[in-house]
Write a sequence for this structure.
């Protein structure tokens, strides 16, 4: 029996906590300092190149691109100071520092390739100043178009996910549904959603419904197939244990089969999301007067290549943000599988 006068030993930190503390609190070192300061240096060098070298293309704006570089330099400098004040913030700043530096380097190369050296010539390859000027001029229309695209994407994607999950669970669990549903999937699944634009416009009246209908069709197939596959591949031992404890069919489906099939289901959600981006752009080029896809074709028709490139970059940021959000949801929902599988 331990003596009450002996002070208990402090709790031993787990190896994971030890690695985390060492990584976040330890001094940076030479490589760490370079990683933290690299985005500041890269932004300042890009600004210096822009100010010193003469222009060989037309520059409609003289303040938007320098302002962007100055903002990057100021933000990254603030992050470098923040990681010095709060050591636990250091790991993220060190990790993302080179990536932020890469943004400034890419902007500098783009500036050199177009505006400064004119290796890529107008009108098809405008410099960053012209693209930023085009975005600034049509900022209100671009915000409205992004909102319209988000509405179409959200309505179509969530409808397709709901239908896909319902069909996948039914086909994965019930043999009779799978017997009749599999031929239907083999016939309808390979049809490209973009080939059904005219059909969707004929079936659904108005300018809004055809887009979400095409997106839902594109999302429905991969979600259905991977949900069905995930449920069919759940180990039978899971169901045997649950039945031994008195579980009924509803419990087996919603508390055993679906949670165990979530990794496969999320793969279907990612595939469906990528397909929805393509279908959204195609659907907005026919029969609508708003949206990012419509704006892209409209500016291309007027040979406004600076605004065309601007909306392309906005679409990249728009779609990447939605994809990142789905990754966050996946990490949150499947957090219990960390250490079992790698992602």
């Amino acid at each position: 029996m331990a003596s009450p006068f002996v002070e208990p030993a402090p709790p031993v930190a787990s190896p994971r906590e030890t690695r985390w503390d060492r990584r976040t609190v330890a001094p940076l070192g030479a490589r760490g300092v370079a990683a933290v300061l690299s985005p500041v240096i890269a932004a300042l060098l890009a600004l210096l190149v822009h100010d010193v070298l003469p222009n060989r293309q037309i520059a409609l704006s003289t303040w938007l691109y320098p302002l962007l570089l100055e903002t990057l330099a100021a933000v990254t400098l603030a992050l470098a100071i923040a990681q010095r004040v709060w050591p636990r913030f250091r790991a993220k700043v060190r990790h993302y520092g080179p990536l932020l530096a890469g943004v400034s380097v890419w902007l500098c190369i783009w500036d050199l390739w177009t505006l400064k050296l004119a290796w890529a010539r107008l009108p098809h390859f405008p410099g960053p100043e012209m693209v930023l000027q085009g975005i600034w001029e049509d900022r209100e229309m671009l915000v409205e178009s992004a909102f319209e695209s988000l509405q179409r994407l959200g309505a179509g994607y969530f409808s397709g996910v709901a239908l896909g999950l319902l069909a996948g669970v039914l086909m994965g669990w019930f043999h009779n549904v799978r017997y009749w549903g599999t031929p239907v999937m083999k016939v309808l699944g390979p049809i490209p959603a973009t080939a059904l634009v005219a059909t969707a416009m004929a079936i659904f009246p108005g300018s809004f419904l055809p887009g979400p209908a095409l997106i839902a069709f594109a999302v429905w197939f991969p979600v259905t197939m991977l949900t069905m596959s995930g449920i069919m591949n759940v180990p039978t031992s899971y169901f045997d244990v649950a039945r031994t404890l008195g579980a009924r069919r509803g419990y087996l489906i919603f508390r055993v089969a679906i949670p165990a099939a979530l990794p496969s289901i999320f793969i279907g959600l990612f595939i469906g999301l990528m397909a929805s981006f393509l279908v959204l752009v195609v659907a907005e080029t026919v029969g609508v007067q708003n949206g990012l896809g419509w704006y892209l074709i409209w500016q291309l028709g007027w040979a406004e290549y600076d605004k065309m490139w601007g909306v392309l970059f906005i679409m990249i940021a728009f779609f990447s943000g939605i994809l990142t959000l789905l990754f966050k949801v996946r990490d949150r929902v499947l957090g219990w599988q960390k250490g079992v599988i790698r992602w």
In short: Confidence is low (pLDDT under 50) at residues 1-10, 13-24. Residues 139-334 form a domain with the MetI-like fold fold (CATH 1.10.3720.10). The first helix runs from residue 15 to 25. The chain has two domains: 15-123, 139-334.
